[in-house]
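Handoff note, outgoing to incoming analyst
You'll be picking up this chain. Sequence as last confirmed:
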Amino acid sequence: MSKTIKVALAGAGAFGIKHLDGIRNIDGVEVVSLVGRELDKTREIAGKYGIAHATTDLADSLALPEVDAVILCTPTQMHAAQALQCLRAGKHVEVEIPLADSLDDAQAVVDEQRRSGLVAMAGHTRRFNPSHQWVHRRVAAGELRVQQMDVQTYFFRRSNMNALGQPRSWTDHLLWHHAAHTVDLFAWQAGGEIVQAHAVQGPIHPQLGIAMDMSIQLKSSTGAICTLSLSFNNDGPLGTFFRYICDNGTYVARYDDLVDGKDQAIDVSKVDVSMNGIELQDREFFAAIREGREPESSVAGVLPCYRVLARLEKQLAEQG
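Most recent structure output, in case you need it:
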């Protein structure tokens, strides 16, 4: 494909805007349709980014013959159904993490992708952050072997707000969203498959109906282990911190930044063409479309992560 890739983006919230900002830096791609929950706000954002078409219904965007691909930044609970809708309409699709909030739904998307032959990718952004790419390349070169990962994912979300501090129309989830990042990243960095997985969680929030604190332990078939702590109760510092304990050094990553065990900064600015993980994720999606290949973090490639999440969900349900 040499022509401009025409894109519809669904979800005009905090992460949708991150994608719009990233796409501005990618040649040969044009966002031609924007889908949002409130039409006036969606039109306002569309005007800011020079997007001609705005709607509240994904079907309107899918009906546009010029649309080649769709990026879904909608609520978690809509991801799988909308991904299927896009594939069945003949559109390539990139689904923000998580691909689904159940294993059955994730498998359905994988099955539909295989039937259609279209590019379908999940937004497992950690695979694209330069910090994690730097570690991965050293592992692939045989220079590092991950022994242990210790990860903290901490937010302060005792009310239903998004990353911009705006009210959410849906409820986020520690297991199916935030743990998905680390479960997938651990398997990707350690190699092998996750052979042990255990979880415990704290009390269920009376209004939000979700656990606000969770602890997860994982073990890879390579012998590497991972400890993940997650909280929506943490009042700072916020974000996710990844400690890689390796056979040849210790490294701490926070999004696109990386330091060694002595807290010395590692220059990862030359790892890829950008320091923006979301932009790099989108670049991979569009490159896979142009080259007719399976992308990094394809829906099939990340399915093992959702198998582990389903096992953990079953454990937590049995704990009561």
